[in-house]
What does this fold into?
Amino acid sequence: MTAEAPVLQTTGLGKKYRSRWALRDCTLSVPAGHVTGLVGPNGAGKTTLLNLAVGLLAPTEGTVQVLGGEPAGNETQLAKVGFVAQDTPTYAGLSVADHLKLGKHMNPGWDAAVAEDRIARLDLDPKQKAGKLSGGQRAQLALTLAIAKRPEVLILDEPIASLDPLARREFLQTLMEVTAEHDLSVVMSSHLVSDLERICDYLVVLVNSRIQVAGEVETLLATHYQVTGPRCDPAALPADWQIVSASHTDRQSTLLVRSDTPVVEPGFTVDQIGLEDLVLSYLSEAGRTGSRGHKELEAQR
Amino acid sequence: MIWLSWRQFRPQALVAGCVLAGLAILLLSTGFGVAHLYHDSGLPGCPDTRACQHALFVFSNELRGSIYEFVFYLSIALIYLAPALIGAFWGAPLVAREAETGTLRLAWSQSVSRSRWLLVKVAMLGLTAMAVAGLLSLMLYLWSQTAYKAGKYASAHGPSGLSITRLSPLLFGTNGIAPIGYAAFAFAVGLAAGVLIKRTLPAMAVTLAVLALVLVGWPALVRSHLIPPVHTTSILRGPNIAGLGISGSQKMTVFVGADKPGAWVISDQAVNAAGQQYSGRPPRACLSKSFNGCTKAILALGLKQAISYEPASRYWALQGSETGAYLLFAVALAGACTLRIRRRRLA
It folds into this structure.
């Protein structure tokens, strides 16, 4: 497989549970070599997308490829993908050392040195049963398993959601070290932007089962502007502005504008926007309007 | 993969080992006693029918109500319980518990395909289940072979208190290779319930219900169709009349006893010329107390005795086809589970 194959590529991907779509119309191409954050509120479809990517779920429609291959299509493909599932499952009755043995026996590319070194650095007792570990330690153990199989891409589903702030920082610290050391691509989901802000250089925002925006963080920051000015009619704004969100008071309008060319408009103050504000604007806008069709209907009236 | 399967199976295997060892100790400590009783009764090498009948009487009397009888029934209960336990505690949790605790997502993220993951586990647990059942059957066979010998003699030489034949519906499933088939089938039923329901306790309950239905219904509904039974019709003879059922002075049925040593008699009726079970007015002689007169009067009716049975010689053929049928079901179920898991319906 070529190194240029995207880490995660989907076209029209959708997953339906009974009558409810958990993911819809998902078309995405995440290039290799990035630490990608998948952001969205709870229930947005992040876990569904990641489970589709590792082959734990089968798509209802569309296609999904990871590193150019069918997820979990064969054992070579499985070896290329390290996955830490939500709530970082481990075998409660098995010790830390047992988990490393499990990894060794079930992965041809297992790197015992990396695994043992990490367990030692984390100060975990190899004889300790995984069921007696703290949430943070369990997450670290699950991450160790995923790293020591020496994958090309690491997929993490809300690995830090249930951790306390200290454990969270340690986990992200480890993740950054590992990414640098082993030249890994990472895709991780979270509902907390602040967590991802520090380590991600690629971002996918998923709300209401749909992709809202995706791209390199730098590019996203460079093409989004916060525009403040006197209260105005949205229809009167320049046509090449893509209004992500707008809020109005009696006298003033605040807009988040997406534009490939610099935004200059007399009478308006134009500011750069931080990643967190950018994401929150997308989240609140998508949450407020529900579906796009609904919004269009209102505009016509 | 083998390592993980064994590591996870170890506690359950240990329990099975303890049960087997416990039973082995119980059977060993009482087995020699049964063998002694048999030899001391004088049954082996008894010179004539009279002496043999006496020896048989002594032997069966010694057994009745003794600790040996208790051990025998206990072992039978255990052999019938084994498939239920295997299905509920080995089969049902295999996938269901991992689905419940989420560890399936860990196991399936390793570089081992799901089919291999399942097949290794199924092979290890399924073969162990079959081995356990086979050992149970073998141990009980070694323990009870003297009783079966006596039972064989008893059924060949007229009525006696000891009726124990390995083809009888109750005992057939406790000896030979049939328990191996039940164990494999029970394990597969548990596995399938776990794969479909994905929760341990409901899967266990469903497994037990299905097994109870199949294993209890089987001897009556299916076994006699594995190999079509032999039907014979012959003139009813006096010694074969086992009893009469007379209700009022209107209706009489004749109960007959088959003369088929070691066979599994499925039905045995006194029939009229048309081949239907005889039912008619009782002859006058039978309303009085004259036994001989009554017998004569019944024989004068010209009745026939219709027997349908599986002869003793078919024991291994029946064992083979029953075990084969169960193994086939087991393999089909395990195969279906593998296909379903491969299609990624679980997460």
About this structure: Residues 291-301 of chain A have pLDDT under 50 and may be disordered. The two ends of chain A are 52 Å apart (CA to CA). The first strand of chain A starts at residue 8 and ends at 17. Chain A touches chain B at residues 51, 54-58, 72, 74-76, 78-79, 81-83, 85-87, 89-92, 94, 98, 101-103, 105-109, 142, 145-146, 149 (CB under 8 Å).
